[in-house]
Amino acid sequence: MSKFTKEMVDDYANKLLIGLTEEENKLVLDEFEQIDKQIDLINEIPNIENVTPMTHALDNFVTFLRDDEAKTSDDIDDILANAKDVEGREIQIPKVVD
Amino acid sequence: MSKYEATIGLELHCELKSNSKVFSPSKNSYDVTPNNNVCAIDLAFPGTLPVVNKECVKKALMMSMALNCKQPEYMCFDRKNYYYPDLPKGYQITQFYNPVGTNGEILINYDGKEVPIKIHEIHLEEDTAALEHLYNTTTLDYNRAGVPLLELVTEPCITCAEEAIAFIETIIGMYRYCDISEVDTKKGQLRCDVNVSIKEVGSNELGTKVEVKNVNSLSNIAKTIDYEIERQTALAEAGQYDEVVQETRRFDEATGATIHMRSKADAIDYKYFPEPNIPPIKIDAQWLEDIRREIPALQNERRKIYTSEYGLDEYDTNIIIKDKKHADYFEKCIEIGIDAKTASNWFIVQILGYLNKNYLDITEFYLKPEDLKVIIDEINKGTISNKQAKEIFTKACDEKVSPTKLISQEDSQISDKNKLEEIIENILNNNQAQIESYHNGKTNLFDFFVGQVMKETRGKANPVITKEILNEKLK
Amino acid sequence: MSNMNKTIKELHELLKNGEITSEELVKESLEKAHQLQEECNAFVTIIDDANPEKVTDNLLSGIPYGIKDNYSTKGILTTGSSNTLKDYIPYFNATAIEKLNKAGAVKVTKTVMDEFGMGGTGTTGHTGIVLNPWDKTRICAGSSAGSACAVAAGVFPYALGTDTGDSIRKPAAYCGIVGYKPTYGMISRYGVFPFASSLDHLGVLARNVEDCAIVVDEMKGIDEKDMTSWDSKNINLFANLKEETEGKKLCYIKELCDISSYPNADEELRLHLENFHKTIQKCRNLGIEVEEVSVDRKLLNALFSSYIVIYSAEASSNMSNLTGIIFGPRGNADNYIDMIKDHRTNGFSTLIKRRFIIGSYVLQKENMERYFKNAQRIRRLAVDIWKDLYKKYDAVISPVGIGPAKKIEDINKSHDTNTVTLDEYLCIANFGGFPSITIPNGFVNNLPVGVNITGNCFDDSNVLNIAYTLENALGYKNQIAKEVKNNE
Questions:
Q1: Selected residue of C357, C362, C421, C456 to mutate for chain A interface (largest A Cβ count, 10 A)
Q2: Which of helix, strand or coil describes residue C78?
Q3: N or C: which end of chain A has fewer CB within 10 A?
């Protein structure tokens, strides 16, 4: 019995606010199986748990911080240009009740 | 006496003061015009990237140190992923794995004692957009999106509402003293989540934790805590403690009760992972030291000095230390040699009275501590009375003239007709015999009366006006 | 008369001497674009009103170029080849575009890609499959499919790409051209749609190494809007470009390059590896030292899964802003959750949705250690091995993919693990942020194949010089795709 189920996949899809077809659901299940097998192989690498995960592409970033200077607001017409429902200076959506 | 005791933990969100937002150069300022302080980054237009504001990091580090927390070697940011219309990116940039401060502790003044409160952590993050609910739609204002927030999380170590309030007041004081935030609750700059559980007195095992989200004023925080303790205790005493479940509730202002929002099973997994667009930022040791040196003496420290060294009472002390600028003014007075109790009296009664009456901030107040000293010195020398001193004080403040100038005028001559009339009236009343002689022809007694006025005013009466009045009165 | 098959330097000379005008170039480029669009479907947008630019001393001035459709272009439709942004017009330019504008380069097309860069086939864009100009029964690979297709077809001398796993370097190989992604952060990512931010690189596709150097010189530079960008003013790729063999040492990885690793190898793979070893021999003949090194097979085979886990996680988060609220088409529903769901369900292709679910799964608290963190640990181990190699070698040389461009019907064909590893392992350069360039090294079944050179971070000049040297020796420079009819 696989640890990945159709219901689980649908639940994840739901949390990501996407819907899946039956076929898509099945493809995901297949991929899970494959990745899981690969991960089993990863776990065979000795002392893998002692390795520090690599989170960024470079090890030696020369970092900088931004000086605290404010810029003027972007043009309101630019900001709203791509929105499909606008009320005054704001974007409008169906009422958020929760 | 209840056989149960409460354990309370707090999460305080406070908006920081800065010119620009924490990850974008938009203005960080409250604005009634919607979407008036926004840029592409705040609305998460595709391809935009966060760039960390140095001032916000500095203030976060300062608060971390002020709370006696441990600072990390690197400033790191993580993503907290969830969907809500107020979160344009679909994630909030925060600090989860390596916050700017951990394991802190501060002493608060509560119930006449110093009580330690343990700080679990403090982290820097961004605020969300504001939703405005209309009849059947909601509109989105992104002015607040990206405003810097500090979230402070205590250990569950607080025992009652009063202690929680004392703690929050101390924290508010620290934010203001360090100039990190104005903590304007009216602008929603302080928001609080309250965690309450109860356990049997003396037990080491914590009870079931109930979280109450987004309580926004000190009085509501106190009400929330009292309500929850009462609710949970009642259930426990009725043998129904299993009805206390791990859940999130909210405080309903209308009824003063807390209401179920969601249970633990519905808890969102935020899928925290390191923000790839912000590399870990090495915190320079020298910078940290410089920031540490900028932390001013805080309320507790000042309280100790005022009460033990200056001999002020707790009540007066608390009035003065409430605002750092007030305490700084007061301390300057002492530094230049004004007696502490005198300074305290003058500050609380005259200065704060004057400021309140005129709706002024101390930064707008004309009189400098040095000016105050001039007045107080004159009282001590006996050259002016207390009453005169207060008049000089008010006049100096109103007219923005130095008290020195006013005192020297006062010193040289009394030209106030009413005042002189009063003095002369007195003298005449006490010298009825001489008046009779004068009216009977001994006119050279006129000079006797002038002499009496001069004597009474130590020679400061304006002779012309004095003679005018005398002539009038002796007619 | 065709000019668009010329190099940047040649075009610049002609423009400078007044033998041609920017207007003529733009006209020719647009015509060719329309023609190619009919044949291969390479473009989301052809900018018919593109304005010629004044010719200056800048080598790029007045010359047309193509832009992958994930670079924000002010006032010009930018879709990421996704239905979720099918009508999105940015009001700002990506930093890289801003820089090319200043150089006087002329943008003439927005090119088709795999949706948001995910998927290496050039088949998942919302405007349809991009066909290979050498053989229209085959793919270009992706995700920079349209850019590779158009440069190979001679629409313009160069086009911009992005590369998260091999998205510049593989389509370049399949189309017989050069694809270069510099060290991570050398070019600002600001304004480019993210796929997996810790792996995303910008770069260029062109028909020779020199053109790549010229273009990246213009695109690169520290940007106050991208905290991961860095100051590269000491790196001048074009000015320092020269043939170098003296003291140069390359290595190749035995486990990847030896035919014995692939007992089920088809003819294309066999010929591809043979051709690769011919290239190695050519290097040696030039006086470049090449050694065979060995890397733990287990680790190599873990690269691809780790790559999927990392990119799926980052992508699922990066694309959470695609809700149809601020930009993109609105979903249909009377509550906001269903509205967003409708937008996302209809907007994303199957592949993206599948990867989102994987990404979300591997980030869950209870799965984080086993999947996401382990994948990042593999990333660490592999990058450390490569960094060790760079102590001894200037670069790692390897074949690109498992042969020439795949047949469209074969893209979902499954392969054994070792073959998959060879096909996908170029993501090592994204893991480590390494500069990496693919150049054409010959033909298999009359179709172009490529070889890749990947060096250490910040060592871009060295990598380019090796590629430049080899390119001149191999003789597949400035190829224009000629349609071939195979197996028919």
A1: C357
A2: coil
A3: N
For the CA atoms of B355, B359, B361, B365, what is the dihedral angle to 10 degrees?
A: -50
Cα B187 off chain centre by: 15
Q: How far apart are CA C194 and CA C320, in angstroms?
A: 11
For the question of residue C143 being annotated catalytic, the response is yes
Which pLDDT tens digit goes with each residue over C71-80?
999 999 999 9
The verdict on residue A96 lying in a domain is no
CA distance linking residue C370 with residue C382, whole number of Å: 18
Q: In what order do the strands lie in the sheet with B273-274?
A: B91-94, B78-81, B273-274
Residue with structure tokens 């000016």? B371
A97 located within any domain: no
Catalytic residue, from C147, C167, C188, C306: name it: C167
Contacts of B436 (CB under 8 A, 6+ apart): none
Please name the member of A20, A34, A91 whose beta carbon is closest to the beta carbon of C353. Answer: A20
C167 in catalytic set = yes
pLDDT tier for residue B440 given thresholds of 50, 70 and 90: confident
Chains that touch A (3 or more CB pairs under 8 A): B, C
Give me the mean pLDDT over the B35-46 stretch: 98
Residue C359 Cα, gap to closest chain A Cα (Å): 10
| Non-local CB neighbours of B258 within 8 Å, separated by 6+ positions | B210, B212, B224, B227, B228, B231, B249, B250, B251, B252
Structure tokens at B174: 């620290």
Domain C8-244+434-474 belongs to what architecture? Alpha-Beta Complex (3.90)
* Mean pLDDT, chain B, integer: 92
C49 vs B249, C127, C140, CA distance in Å?
Answer: 59, 21, 28
Q: Are strands C249-253 and C395-399 parallel, antiparallel or unpaired?
A: parallel
CATH class of B417-473: mainly alpha
Q: Residue B18: its chain A contacts at CB < 8 A?
A: 68
How many domains does chain A fold into? Answer: 1
Neighbours of chain C (3+ CB pairs under 8 A): A, B
CB B88 within 8 A of CB B295: no
Residue B152 bridge partners (DSSP): B12, B122
This model of the complex carries an ipTM of 0.97
Cα torsion angle, A83, A89, A92, A98, sign = positive
Which residues lie below 8 Å from residue C439, measured CB to CB, with a gap of 6+?
C178, C209, C450, C451, C453, C467, C470, C471, C474, C476
Torsion sign (Cα): C459, C460, C466, C467: positive
Residue-wise pLDDT for B352-361, tens only, equals: 999 999 999 9
Residue A68 resides in a domain: yes
Other CB atoms within a 10 A radius of the CB of residue B301 amount to: 12
pLDDT value, residue C475: 95
Q: Report the relative pairing of strands B113-126 and B148-154 from DSSP bridges.
A: antiparallel
CA distance C203 to C195: 15
Q: From residue C361, give the alpha-carbon distance in Å to each of A41, B270, C244, C307, C317.
A: 19, 12, 48, 15, 12
* Structure-token pair, residue B97: 């794995």
Please check whether residue A10 is in contact with residue C361, taking contact to mean a CB–CB distance below 8 angstroms: no
Mean pLDDT of C163-175: 98
Domain ranges of chain B: 4-288, 417-473
Assessment of whether the complete model's pTM goes beyond 0.90? yes
- Give the structural domain span for A54: 6-91
Question: How many angstroms separate the CA atoms of C176 and C478, rounded?
Answer: 9
- The alpha-carbon radius of gyration of chain B (Å, integer) is 32
pLDDT at residue A1, as a whole number:
46
- State residue C488's pLDDT score: 44
Taking only the tens place, the pLDDT of each residue in C9-40 is 999 999 999 999 999 999 999 999 999 999 99
Residue A98 lies in a domain: no
Residue B47 has which token pair? 């391809």
